[in-house]
Every structure is written in C-alpha cells, then in structure tokens.
Design a protein that fits this description.
With about 325 residues, the protein is of the alpha/beta class. It has 2 domains: about 160 residues, Aspartate/ornithine carbamoyltransferase (Rossmann fold); about 160 residues, Aspartate/ornithine carbamoyltransferase (Rossmann fold). The chain is built from 13 helices and 9 strands. The strands form 2 sheets. The chain has a 5-stranded parallel sheet. Helix 8 links the parallel strand 6 and strand 7. Helix 2 crosses helix 13, helix 3 packs across helix 13 and helix 4 crosses helix 5. It is globular. It starts with 15 loop residues before the first helix and ends in a 5-residue tail after the last helix. Bound molecules: phosphoric acid mono(formamide)ester.
C-alpha cells in the first residue's frame, strides 16, 4: 500500500543531525519520545520499507548481533524484530521461553539483571519481553547496549505503538483531527498504554471503551489530559464507532486475570462484527495488535478498512528503523 502523506511519512534518508537523536538510546516507554523523534522513526521506517520493496539487499547492521529475549509468548514481535535484523544484514541470537518451558539459565534461578550483564557482552542490541512490568528498565540498567522493550507485563509495548502510528499514517495519511477509539482491555493492555501516549503528539481526539473493571488506568488518562488531549470514556461502542476514524480493538488479556471466572464475566462484553460497520463512520479503519480471540469476528476481515494484518506487516520496517537508529547505523 502506498504511503499517502509524503510530508508526514517521507521516505528520505535521515540527516546526520537526525541520526544523533536516538543513537545509543534505550526504547523503554512511549512517554520518552519527542515529536521530532517520532517523525524520525516514521520517516526511517518508510525509507526502509521502500528499500525492501525495491529488493535492495541491506548491510546497515552487517557484523552486528541482536539478542532476542522473549520470556513470554510472541509471534509478531519476536519474528518481526528478527526479520528486521536479518533484512538489515545483521545476525540474531534468541531465547524464546515461557514460565512452563524454560531453556535458559533463568530456570536455574539466574536473575534478569545477571543474564543481561552477560548477554550484553555477546550482542550489540537487546530486545526483551517479560511478564514482569518494569523488566525492560531493569535490563537497561544492566546493559551498555541499547535495550528495546518488547512488552513488559501489563506495562508498555512502545515498539507496537510506533508501528500502530505508522499504520494509521499509511491508512489515513495524517492523524491530525482524527478520532481514535481504543476498545477492550485497557487496564492490562500494554499496547494501548503506549499508544494513547503517542497519539497525544498528533492532535487526535481519543475515545476509550472498556468493561468497567478494565478501564484505562486513571494516571495514564490524567497524563494525556494534562497535555491538552480530549479523552472521552463511554461503554457505548456503536456510538463511539459512529464518530471514529480508527477503531483500535484489543484482546481481553486472560493471562493477567487472577482467576478464570473473572475473565469469563467480561470476555464477551464487546465484540466487533460486520453489523457494527453498517452504522460506523464511513471509512473507519479497524486495527488490532493481534493475536485476536473472539473480539473481532472473521467476517470483518473482508472489510477494506480492516487493517490488522497490514498493521502486523508494518512491524518489520518500523523495527528496522528502531534497530538502525539506536545503533546509528542508517546507511
Ligand atoms: N502484537 C503483539 O505483541 O503480538 P505478539 O504477542 O505475537 O508479539
């Protein structure tokens, strides 16, 4: 799909001054970014997307190693980071395990801090996902090399939110003045915790729709409102969809509930089905970080504005941009 707004997402190579902005930095929270840095990431992602589409073989990260450390399940984030590093000509070392299946020395009781101190000697950049909120910050304290937070429990998922912004720019051309509704488990959903902070840079109106017990944490809403962002909360999905340009759907995060009975009480509260699209705003873009369970029915997949699979594809150029920028390796 073509990038619609060349002014916001130009595919130009970043200048030397721009390249200095993120070099050597960790990517830990969406709260860390300036608008200038966000524009740089979007432009660099577009730059790499074009190069890959043109069939160029890249050597920007040749000789560099990315450690891909996933202590919680992942399909998209891990594989798109690993694809991104491969596309840049670099190499990947991986730990992919869960609490049930452990293959690293975590099983012997090694702390994350100690593991990262060692892995930092093997790799040039470290990508980490953990079920523990704050794990990426701990990893960053242990590492000299840049650490990229790929999801820390119910905390944040900043690289997902960056690809979400990139997706909206590609789908709609601009974010200014758009109404974006975030739907689902806004309490535990780390993608929306990061995305709402990024949206605050782009002049959007935000609507939050969630079961009462799964509302966006009040401190995050307060932070965004302090920046002058218009945030409305409602439990009326069809009214929200009728005025929204983007509907960002999230899964109810079963794994974050204390017991299954509590999950069962809310799991079917909001389901997006094709019937909803009949009264939704014309051209509404439907997004989802995936994986989905039942919150978007498969008949919605045929709707032209169903962007969630394109969104997952955007993970590769955005993560290429992040890897190359934090290592100062955009050639
Ligand atoms: N969106 C996302 O984080 O997907 P994975 O859990 O498959 O990485």
């Amino acid at each position: 799909m073509e990038i619609k707004n060349k002014e916001i997402v130009s595919a130009a190579k970043p200048s030397a001054d721009q390249l200095a902005l993120l070099k050597g930095k960790d990517i830990l929270s969406a709260a860390q970014f300036t608008k200038e840095e966000l524009d740089l990431i979007m432009e660099t992602a577009a730059y790499y997307e074009k190069k890959v589409k043109d069939g160029e073989v890249l050597k920007d990260m040749e000789g560099k190693v990315m450690a891909s450390l996933f202590f919680e399940p992942s399909t998209r984030t891990r594989l798109s980071f690993e694809t991104a590093m491969s596309r840049l000509g670099g190499s990947v070392i991986t730990v992919a395990e869960s609490a049930k299946v452990q293959t690293s020395s975590t099983a012997k009781g090694e702390t994350l801090y100690d593991s990262i101190r060692v892995i930092d000697l093997y790799a040039d950049v470290i990508v980490v996902r953990s079920p523990q909120k704050g794990a990426a910050d701990e990893a960053a304290l242990a590492a000299e090399n840049p650490v990229l937070n790929s999801g820390d429990g119910a905390g944040e998922h900043p690289t997902q939110a960056l690809l979400d912004i990139y997706t909206i720019l590609k789908e709609r051309g601009d974010l200014k003045g758009l109404t974006v509704t975030l739907l689902g488990d806004l309490k535990h959903g780390r993608t929306v915790h990061s995305l709402i902070r990024l949206l605050s840079h782009f002049g959007c109106h935000i609507i939050l729709v969630a079961p009462e017990k799964l509302r966006m944490p009040a401190e995050i809403v307060a932070d965004v409102e302090k920046l002058g962002v218009d945030v409305k909360q409602t439990d009326n999905l069809s009214e929200a969809a009728a005025v929204s340009d983007v509907l960002y759907v999230t899964r109810i995060q079963k794994e974050r509930f204390e017991n299954e009975a509590e999950y069962d009480l809310v799991k079917n509260d909001f389901i997006v089905e094709s019937e909803l699209l009949k009264t939704a705003k014309e051209g509404i873009v439907i997004m989802h970080p995936l994986p989905r369970v039942n919150e978007i029915t498969v008949d919605v997949d045929d709707y032209a504005g169903a962007a969630y699979f394109r969104q997952a594809g955007n993970g590769v150029p955005v993560r290429m941009a992040l890897l190359a920028l934090v290592k100062g390796c955009v050639r």
